[in-house]
Structures are given as structure tokens and as C-alpha cells.
Design a protein that fits this description.
heterodimer, A: mainly beta, seven-stranded mixed β-sheet, four-stranded antiparallel β-sheet, 11 strands, B: 110 residues, mainly beta, six-stranded mixed β-sheet, five-stranded antiparallel β-sheet
Chain lengths: 114, 110
Amino acid sequence: AAGVIQSPRHLIKEKRETATLKCYPIPRHDTVYWYQQGPGQDPQFLISFYEKMQSDKGSIPDRFSAQQFSDYHSELNMSSLELGDSALYFCASRPAGTLNNEQFFGPGTRLTVL
Amino acid sequence: EDQVTQSPEALRLQEGESSSLNCSYTVSGLRGLFWYRQDPGKGPEFLFTLYSAGEEKEKERLKATLTKKESFLHITAPKPEDSATYLCAVAIYNTDKLIFGTGTRLQVFP
């Protein structure tokens, strides 16, 4: 079965650089979510999109922005990177036409900021 | 404040030794409770959704139950391949996000 695709899987950046993470949801999923998971921590919600519109916002820094495109893929743009941004970034997607909020997660992008 | 608490933080079991993981929640309006399995460095893998008190779901050696204040994930006769972190998450009304607990790290020894 198709799963959520995230790229790149690993990313190493220097402080103050920018990074772009990409997410391709499961086919026929129209809602995309972004989560950040620090070492030994639980995933923290950043932002979500439904039908290309932002649907909810969590603890996302102002340095980060995201969008969803017409093919439903999403990109998380991160600027002025800080050491504390080092984490696993997960994208999740939800099937179209459902209200139960079941979210299916991708394998994650491991971002390391040096 | 909406909160999810999991216990124990870590659990070591002998192969075949059944046990239960707990997830207690305090939320304004429960829309659903979810269990995920997460292996190190990988994304959470969806296991179960529970919607109302009294509901039960089963999958292989796992069984999830829900009450008005907590959920249990029962593991029957676990095998070493069941070793992982098990995350509980809740969805509440008027928001899209999942609120996660900090997880239970399960290790099953042969």
C-alpha cells in the first residue's frame, strides 16, 4: 500500500541557513499535517492544510512557513535555522471525506543543524 | 488544558509475559483516541482508533480499550518484534491536531 513520502530523509544545515522539507501524501488524502519530534520527546503539531488552505496552526515558529500545492503535496520552509531546530520532522495525511482525524505518518526527515 | 499521560515510561517484558500500557487523558471534547507504534528513527505507525467509552479493537497480540478517562493497550504473549515505543494520541473538537503522550518504551526479551 502507498505511504506518505517525505524528502529528503536526512538533511544537515548550518545555523542561519534555510531548509525545505517536502511531503507527498497518500493518494486520495487531502489533508496534510506537519509535526516536530525532538530527541526523546513526543511529536508536536506544527501546522495543517486542507484543500490547499491552512486549517490549523500549532507551535510553529515565525521563521517557518508551509503551504500545500494543487497536487496536495506540501512543503515546510524553515529559515534562520537554529541549533534547537534539530529534530525529526514528520508529515501525516488524512483520507479525503473522513471526519475521524486518523492520520498516517511518513518516515520523517531528520534535520541536523550544526 | 488538554493533556495526555502515558504510563509506564518504560516496560521490560519476557517473551510471552502479557501486560498493559495505560493512557489517561484530560481533554475538553474527545473526538477520538489513537494508538501508534513507533520504531527508533521512524514515523509513527497507525494501530487503532477508539471513539467512545466501552469500545475495543484488536489486532494480532494487541487489544485497545477505552473508558471515559483512559485507554489501555493490552499486549498478550508479546514477542521480541513487539519491542517499540507505543504512543497514545487524542483528537479534540475544533482543532486538527493530535495531542500525543510521551509514549511507553516497550522491550520484549526472548
